[in-house]
Amino acid sequence: MPVKSKLKTGLSTGTCAAAAAKAAVLLLSGSVDKDEVQAVEITLPTGKKIKVPIKGWSKQDNLACAWVEKDAGDDPDVTHGLEVHVQARFNSEGNRIEFVRGKGLGVVTRPGLPVPVGEPAINPVPRQMIIQAIREVTALGVQIKISIPCGEEVAHKTFNPRLGIKGGISILGTTGVVRPYSVAAIKETIGLNINMVWEMGYRELVLVPGNIGNRAATSLGFNADIVVEVSNEWAYALDKLKNYDFRKVTILGHAGKLLKFINGHFQTHSQNSPSAVPIFLAAVKQVLGIKLTDVTTVEGGFSCLAAKERQVIGNHLAKQVFEKVQQRLSTVPLLQVVLINLKGEILGKNL
Length: 351
Prior knowledge:
alpha/beta; CbiD-like; 2 domains; 5-stranded mixed beta sheet
């Protein structure tokens, strides 16, 4: 059997920005000639040092610019291939490092993120990486302007619009590298989104798996500001909620996903949890006395039932899901479970 090759790690946007900043400041300070910044050494938050290639650079009078092309490795990252540009000039106001937002870098517009409203969307860890990279070159004050060409277009494919980050992508990263198929970024986004809902003053929250649940929630009248997408990371999201005092939490999603909770599977990716079809078939047999055959999906199973039967079994299963969620989230005064199909139609609910 052939051995799979090891997946390649990549660079976070924070590492790219730090490398571009260091290269620009090196040029600005005259520490290197223009032809000597083909790569710079960056210290990652772990303490490890890596060499980052510089794609391009320029210098004119008291202004220098360098840029890095993001390589996300084997991670399916929508920011892969984007260029991170940093323009640097010396700041006459003491030794402060000033961050300026350029085109394609997002701006924070809502409270609840680790960056104040109105600031460029550069998270604390990459911000510190950039500062450290600059301080390895100079102790003088520097103004840096970060731009990401095409960043505004790519941002629509990320969670940024839901987090209230407008005008571009974020500069992210906690380790400086991107690990292939890691769920760390998804979990971080879930935590930030929950905190944002809380900081905006809402005490009601709706958790959905993704786009289908999102659309269904808004069509059912839920405020879009309180809807948080959790993908398959239900265990993480529910545990995160223990840090808050939400008065009402609604779990809304496709039955094929949420029924997995009944057997204790709160990470619902197909690689980490078995199909929910056996749960559905067992319930139909127990509650309705019907033995269905040749059912391969929960969606297909529901379509085999009459309207009244769908409602009975849907409500029964929603109550079972509720009981499992309540075991993990017993402090929430009002907990609602809504099961839907792929069209966003309600199949069942516990309330």
